[in-house]
Amino acid sequence: MRIDPNKCVACGNCTYVCPVGAIYIDPDLKRATVDQDECVECYACFNGLSQEHLNPTLVRMVRKTFQALRLRFDPEPDVCPTAAFAPQELVWPRVVRRAFSDPRVPHESTGIEGRGTEEVKTNDISGRVQVGEVGFTIEFGRPGVGVWMHEIQQMCTALTQAGVSFEKKNPITSLMSDVSRGALREDILGEKVLSAIVEIKVPVERTEEIIRLVWEVEERLDTVVALGVGTRCAPDGEDDVVAPILERLGYKLHRAKTNTGLGRITNRNLQPQNEAVAQ
Amino acid sequence: MTNTLHRAGDASSFHDDYIVFAMCSRGKNDEDAVPRLRKFLEMACQFHPVNLGDARHGGAYRPSRSLNPLAHWKRDAKPDFDAVIAGLDTPTAAAAVFDNRAAAEDLLKAVREADLGLSVNISTSVEGAEQCCYAAGLPRHSVGYSLGFEGKTEHLPNSDVLMLSTMCGHSMVSPSLAKKMIDWVKEGRRTPEQAVQYMSRFCSCGVFNPSRACRILEQTRKRTK
Q1: Which class does domain A2-86 fall in?
Q2: Entry pTM
Q3: Which residue in A53, A264, A267 is closest to B27 by CB distance?
Q4: Could you give the CA distance from residue A110 to residue A116 in angstroms, rounded to a whole number?
Q5: Nearest Cβ partner of B149 from A15, A197, A226?
């Protein structure tokens, strides 16, 4: 993302809306400027700010007059008065930043927006996590911290050394050059994204081992990690297996997303399989 | 919709936060999914959601590409649910946000009756979701627990800011904006209702909960630290 210096009036509204704080008013230019190294191309500024199309010269003059009189105009804080944002055409590998950071862009590998994962949200039709298994979503960088791809690779490498395999329908997996080693493509390691999710699945007996491994690796990373643990419930809707393990490890289970089991296969070419999945 | 999972706050802080969302799986039930997703949103509207959204086009509060400068003095503040329903044109995740459990339960019951064939999830406290499923006669199929934030948590803002900004799990509501809104409400420069609308417009899939955000801003108004 870049900001057109000919249009910017340095109102400062955009400096607050950048999730990673990559926008600042350059004291020499006296214009809002994007730190290209830190910008994750999430487009929160471009998509989220309402745009006016005021004359920049006029706005600067009014602002200077108000400043000189020590008056404060109290405008709406979610507006770019001169529509100064000018998205750049992104090329590889920088385009990876937007793919993982702008929630409106669907991932090519899964067709899903955001971080591009289905997890247990469609478990009622995908059967991704079965009884006796645990699905982990290991999410990096959220909220508002961001993560470098080389940091994600550290976690992936450690997981492969523990003999864990990755979910195939996942955007991070699709960017691996060697899945058996958890190695990401060399040319994206220097890219920073707002957040990304690594998905794995293990037998329920390995739950504690994997969590302890994640704890060990996250000590070495300069970002935050949000762990999600998904499981298939018993036919009566109860989970007496995974929740006790997590509580024993000290977690307080405040929040969850719950799949209600209403999904079914409806695509015509797959319908004969419908009954098999239901069983 | 992991973006609804990792909301900061303890279980009691989710008493006014229920997100029911529907989605399809590519290659399994995505054929003709658009009318079914629209139907889901239309049904949700009957139970008075506080926000509505689709992951591709945004929520019921949207920024303007061409704002009238008079908006600084008078601005339309109503959520536009019709725009969300009309704009849904591709298989994606459709979400409805409620500030009370009864409405979420009623929607689940209605969706069960309608048999849309979509995967329907509810995101709230563990107990709240269990109660909703029980009331709708739906034993939980699967559950995804949030274990919260770990690692270099020193990079995170304070808990009030975090509760507000994590209501857009895609991080489109920046912590700096949330902090600014807390300060503006404290200063009396904006009401909580106004501050909430600014933040809502940044949430690009419509899962930001304006009701809960309003409550949090009211609570922080008198807090001394």
Answers
A1: alpha beta
A2: 0.94
A3: A267
A4: 6
A5: A226
